[in-house]
Design a protein that fits this description.
The chain is an alpha+beta fold. The protein has 14 helices and 16 strands. The structure holds one RNA strand.
RNA sequence: GCCGCCGUAGCUUAGUUGGUAGAGCACCCGGCUGUUAACCGGGCGGUCGUCGGUUCAAAUCCGUCCAGCGGCGCCA
């Protein structure tokens, strides 16, 4: 048994091969029939002729439908007329399943394809995106493993909010109301006290009623937390991590990027270090670029888009005003009113893919912040305990893996970057 | 939550100043020895999202509800 990709490099030319997979295209012209077969490695055209196969078998072959499963034996032959440069002269075949008509044909709308996602995932576009996604997930883990981090896991059913109260998915837990995790950050902070440097890749759930091309209600959140790290230390790991993931995709998925018509030159410039811009400086710069932002304004999606087009690589925005971020961020002792945090904005208008920074590690400072944000300290007793017993400076980050894949692939919507998107109006398939 | 857009055959859609619905794909039948989401001939397929209103007459104008998409906010 051969993989299709192995028939396309010339080494099998003139030899007998057997491949199996699914019918990607089928056309017949009387005594000839052309089948483009697909497997996970690629596509190749196979040619059946009545003269070779006989009337009966030819009829069997010609009447097959898109996505029927079949194995084909034949002779590999180089032919410029074939879609991938080589084709297979069919000497024999075995049908595994003869399909009813496949629901997906050409000219399908986005909504229909989302309903048929379980079948649309077989398309060449989705296959390429999923291969790139696989590379990205592997590269993320590999990077942190080789930089002294341990992989760990937090719970997905939680009783504590990380960010705020309004965006939680509630569910019943033996009579008690609990919620789905919005982030594993607090649990990573716990694990940090034994493992020092930790990372996780887990789903996060947000019940925000977002209706944009960059939001999912269930997304894959890649988070890290590192003991003794400053904000700057954390950014250094992150930029190397992003550079590594992009370089791994460029190495392993060049053909996939080409199939997606991604401008590869836009990815080749993604090399550390990335620019770091303080929020206050960004406000000044943005006014030179014609935006009317004043200190204290949050960066909206339009502003992010406008900012990122001035750079050919991702850019860190640091030192936001305290009021713009949540309670656990550590204020900068050297710059009152500002916090030691960073967002990473992906270029070409894709915008925020990482949020991170230094965490408050002083007990009283944290307790004051909890009070100031009108939160109940009892809900956070274990998080507060971390500041009670051997507290240390530390930093962390959260990366939206789907947003990363969305940007690397240059996709229209983040829904294309995940196999089974969950949005405000989609829970199937 | 706020703002905008859309809904016509299984799918993608055309439909003029209101005059009674047209195409491509898919599907079925037939043809074709080099097709590239082939081509040629024939066939099947519509409560024009729902309910109501205006009118001699509504896919078209008005209102309602339903469904979807996008933008903002929130964030990754």
């Amino acid at each position: 048994m051969n993989k299709i990709v192995d028939l396309l490099n010339g080494s099998m030319n003139g030899k007998i091969a057997e491949i199996r997979g699914w019918i990607y295209r089928i056309r017949s012209s009387g005594a000839l029939c052309f089948i483009v077969l697909r497997d996970s490695s690629g596509i190749i055209q196979a040619v059946g002729s009545r003269n070779t196969l006989g009337e009966e078998k030819m009829k069997d072959l010609v009447s097959l439908t898109i996505e029927s499963s079949i194995s084909i034996t034949g002779t590999v032959r180089q032919d410029p007329r074939a879609i991938t440069g080589y084709e297979l002269d069919i000497s024999d075949f075995r049908i595994y399943q003869r399909n009813e008509n496949f629901p997906i044909t050409k000219d399908k709308g986005e909504e229909f394809l989302l309903d048929m996602r379980h079948l649309w995932l077989r398309s060449r576009e989705m296959t390429s995106i999923m291969k790139i996604r696989s590379t990205a997930f592997k590269a993320f883990s590999d990077f942190f493993y080789s930089n002294g981090y341990y992989q760990t896991q937090g719970p997905m059913m939680v009783s504590t909010a990380t960010e705020g109260g309004s965006t939680l998915f509630k569910l019943q837990f033996f009579g008690e109301e609990v919620s789905l995790a919005q982030s594993s950050q607090f649990y990573l902070e716990v694990m940090m006290f034994s493992l020092e440097k930790v990372f996780t890749i887990a789903p996060s759930f947000r019940a925000e009623k977002s209706r944009t091309r960059r939001h999912l209600t269930e997304y894959w959140h890649a988070e890290g937390e590192a003991a003794w790290y400053s904000n700057e230390d954390m950014m250094k790991d992150e930029e190397k991590m992003i550079e590594y993931i992009v370089s791994e995709v460029l190495k392993s998925n060049r053909e996939d990027l080409e199939l997606l018509k991604r401008d590869i030159s836009k990815l080749e410039t993604v090399k550390a270090p990335f620019p770091r811009i303080r929020y206050s400086d960004l406000i000044k710069m943005s006014n030179e670029w014609g935006m009317s932002l004043k200190y204290g304004d949050d960066l909206g999606a339009d502003e992010e888009r406008e900012i990122t087009v001035h750079f050919d690589k991702p850019v860190f925005v640091t030192h936001y005003p305290e009021a713009l971020k949540t309670f656990y961020h550590r204020p900068d002792p050297e710059s009152p009113g500002e916090i030691l945090c960073h967002d990473l904005l992906a270029p070409e208008g894709f915008g925020e893919i990482i949020g991170g920074g230094e965490r408050i590690w002083d007990l009283n400072e944290l307790l004051e912040k909890i009070k100031k944000y009108d939160l109940n300290p009892d809900d956070y007793y274990w998080y507060v305990d971390l500041r009670r017993y051997g507290s240390i400076p530390h930093s962390g980050f959260g990366l939206g893996m789907d947003r990363l894949v969305w940007w690397i692939c240059g996709l229209e919507s983040i829904r294309e970057a995940i196999p089974f998107p969950r949005t405000i109006r989609r829970i199937k398939p």
